[in-house]
Structures are given as structure tokens and as C-alpha cells.
Specification:
alpha+beta; two-stranded parallel sheet; elongated; about 55% helix
């Protein structure tokens, strides 16, 4: 039985050697068929992306205009990959120009922290209902803005917070007034070492902190009243 089993194994190997070229032809044909299908599906995916990219460019330009970035130009750049990948045939890069006359450059190379925060806020305002990011942090988002723009930023953040946890580091009362919870971050030196303290503010402490943001070092009855009004107005937006 051992000899017969050996004979059968040898015959199988012999058949494989005899049919080696046919197997190569069959595999090559399968590869060609798959390549045709990959080209087809990748092209369909690429065209869908390009159509959505045009919509995104227009929508983001509108969002950024509302965030006092009127002169910003945004473009989604497509380059075809040399090989197929799990994400298709597109290399995609976000390009941006933040000042008139400047060429479009990769977004990661030219924007400041405040600009990046506002650009991300613009993105999230558009896709907030579709992404699956549980927590978002906006840092320096108030750089270079005030007044009505600050109010718009705060309202956009508030809308995003309906589907996400949002942590915003801000010095603007228009933004801070819309928060559900307000924390004061301070630094003090203890035994020669700087330590950071985070304190959740009560309702009364929150009014004082907003008044400080409104009026500076000296908190007056007028700024306290203004702070109360801002908090009351924020409840209507909520």
C-alpha cells in the first residue's frame, strides 16, 4: 500500500509538470479578467469621488466664508496610482490657499493652528451626521476672530455637539457661553514646580469667568449682567 500510495503521488506530480504551461495560461487569464474588473470598479469609484469632491469644494468654501476665511481657495487634487490598492486608484490630497495670489499647497504645510481648527470645523459641519468620530477637540479655533464670526463658530460647534462630544479651548465668551460644561484651566507653582489645575465651574463661577473674558481683569456689574444675558441667550440656541 505504501508503494501504491507513492506511485499515485508521483503520478500527480507528473501530471502537474505536464500541464504546467496550461496552468500558467489559466492563471494568467484569471489575472487579466480580474484586472479588467478592477479597472472598471476603480474608475466608477474614482468618478463618484470626483463628483463628491466638487460638491465638497463648494460647500467648504461657503462654510469657510462664514468663518471669516473669505479668501481661502480649497481644492481636492486627484492623482492616479501606479498600482491598484484596497482604496482604489486615487491618490487624493487636499490643497488650500489662505491668501489671495498664493498658489494652492497641501493643507498640512501652510495653515496655522487656528486656521486648521476652522477648516476642520467647516468639514465637520458638512459631514457631522455621517462620520463616526466620538470626540472632537477644537484648539485655538478663536484665533483672529471676534464678534459675529465668533458667534457663528460657537453655533456651528454647538450643532456638531449634538452627535459628538466636543472639547473646545477658547478665550471667547461667545463660544464659552454655549458650552454644557465649563472648565477653568490655570497654572500655579508649587514647591518650585509648575502644576496645571482644571476646575469645573459652577453656574455662578461661570458667570464670573465669562465676565472676566468680556471685561478683562476688572469685573463690573455691567460685565456680570452681560455675562448672564449671554448664558440666557445661549440656552435658546441649545
Amino acid at each position: 500500500s505504501i508503494i501504491l500510495g507513492y506511485k499515485e503521488n508521483i503520478n500527480e506530480q507528473y501530471d502537474k509538470l505536464i500541464n504546467y504551461e496550461k496552468q500558467i495560461e489559466r492563471i494568467q487569464k484569471n489575472l487579466e479578467d480580474y484586472e479588467v474588473k478592477l479597472n472598471k470598479y476603480s474608475s466608477v469609484l474614482s468618478n463618484k469621488r470626483k463628483n463628491i469632491a466638487l460638491m465638497l469644494e463648494n460647500m467648504l468654501s461657503k462654510e469657510l466664508s462664514e468663518l471669516s476665511m473669505e479668501n481661502v481657495k480649497f481644492k481636492v487634487n486627484f492623482e492616479k496610482k501606479n498600482n491598484f490598492s484596497s482604496t482604489g486608484i486615487d491618490n487624493i490630497e487636499f490643497l488650500i490657499s489662505t491668501n489671495p495670489g498664493e498658489p494652492l499647497k497641501p493643507i498640512s504645510k501652510i495653515v496655522s493652528g487656528g486656521e486648521m481648527s476652522r477648516i476642520m470645523l467647516g468639514f465637520k459641519s458638512i459631514i457631522a451626521n455621517n462620520d463616526k468620530i466620538p470626540t472632537m477637540i477644537f484648539d485655538e479655533i478663536d484665533t483672529g476672530i471676534s464678534g459675529r464670526t465668533a458667534q457663528v463658530v460657537g453655533e456651528k460647534i454647538k450643532r456638531i455637539s449634538k452627535n459628538h462630544q466636543v472639547i473646545s479651548i477658547s478665550h471667547l465668551p461667545q463660544i464659552a457661553a454655549l458650552a454644557d460644561s465649563h472648565y477653568e484651566i490655570s497654572k500655579e507653582v508649587i514647591n518650585g514646580k509648575a502644576q496645571t489645575k482644571i476646575n469645573k465651574l459652577s453656574d455662578d463661577e461661570r458667570i464670573i469667568e465669562l465676565a472676566r473674558l468680556l471685561g478683562g481683569v476688572n469685573v463690573t456689574e455691567t460685565t456680570l449682567q452681560h455675562a448672564k444675558e449671554m448664558i440666557e441667550m445661549s440656552k435658546e440656541i441649545k
